[in-house]
Amino acid sequence: MALAWVRTPGRGPTTVFLPGFKSDMTGAKATLTEAFCAEHGTGCLRLDYSGHGASGGAFADGTVGRWTDDVLVLIDRLTEGPLVLVGSSMGGWIALLAALARPGRIAGLIGIAAAPDFTEELMWQAMMPDERARLERDGVLHLPSQYGDPTPVTAALIADGRTRLLLDRPIPLQCPVRLLHGQRDPDVPWQATLRLAERLQSDDVHATLIKDGDHRLSRPSDLALLRRALGDLLLQDGA
């Protein structure tokens, strides 16, 4: 199965952009990240998980664990040296898991509406009893989405997610972390970012709440905050 990726050469650290659930590497935040890196001469890697975007595979066959493995395969094959991981929504969870798997390589992490544990807290716990019964009986449940076609949620996705929960204990990462979250996010409660900040063992954790921000945080003003976070982690002078 082929994984799609775009690599921009440059000095380290290399920034790796990790999209959200059913998202891909062509969005505004991903391309802004690449443009920022090109502007400052640092390396960048954008990618699509299996079943997403231009990558092969079926979306319904994916799990958080499988998509994390996709990321680890690509960063091991395509990058060297220190990394800054930028994760949007589910990508924030995957960034944390990848950082825990490669702690010696992580120079920093940015979470944009990061959604660790979302399969349990935002999917399973939000399901009605009849929906849970259908999921367990059929192995898949199609949930309506405001972003397009109904989303297939599989029993495998939920089960795998339960083995990768992070917010129930300290997260042993010591790298600098910058977290951005809109307080009008209808998908991932902004309080999740405060819980994540509390769980991270690093002392260099900054959480920025955007009072009128939505889930995507793709407005020019939101992207300016992302640029600032990238500069904070990638550039010595933060410019």
Specify the CATH architecture. Answer: 3-Layer(aba) Sandwich
Largest sheet properties: 7 strands, mixed
Spatial order of the strands forming the largest sheet: 1-3-2-4-5-8-9
Low-pLDDT stretches: none
Strand content: 15-25%
Give the SSE order as H and E letters. EEHEHEHEHHEEHEHEH
Rg measurement, Å? 17 Å
CATH class: Alpha Beta
The mean pLDDT is 96
Give me the oligomer status: single chain
| Number of helical elements | 8
Helix amount, in percent? 25-40%
What can you see in these coordinates?
By secondary structure, the protein is an alpha/beta fold. The chain has helices spanning 28-40, 64-78, 90-101, 118-123, 129-138, 155-162, 191-199, 220-234, and strands at residues 5-8, 11-18, 42-47, 83-88, 106-112, 140-145, 148-154, 177-182, 205-210. The chain has a seven-stranded mixed β-sheet with strand order 1-3-2-4-5-8-9, with helices on both faces. It has a two-stranded antiparallel ribbon with strand order 6-7.
Which properties best describe this structure?
239 residues; alpha/beta; Rossmann fold; 7-stranded mixed β-sheet; two-stranded antiparallel sheet
Topology readout:
Layout lengths: L4 E4 L2 E8 L9 H13 L1 E6 L16 H15 L4 E6 L1 H12 L4 E7 L5 H6 L5 H10 L1 E6 L2 E7 H8 L14 E6 L8 H9 L5 E6 L9 H15 L5
Parallel strand pairs: 2-3, 2-4, 4-5, 5-8, 8-9
Antiparallel strand pairs: 1-3, 6-7
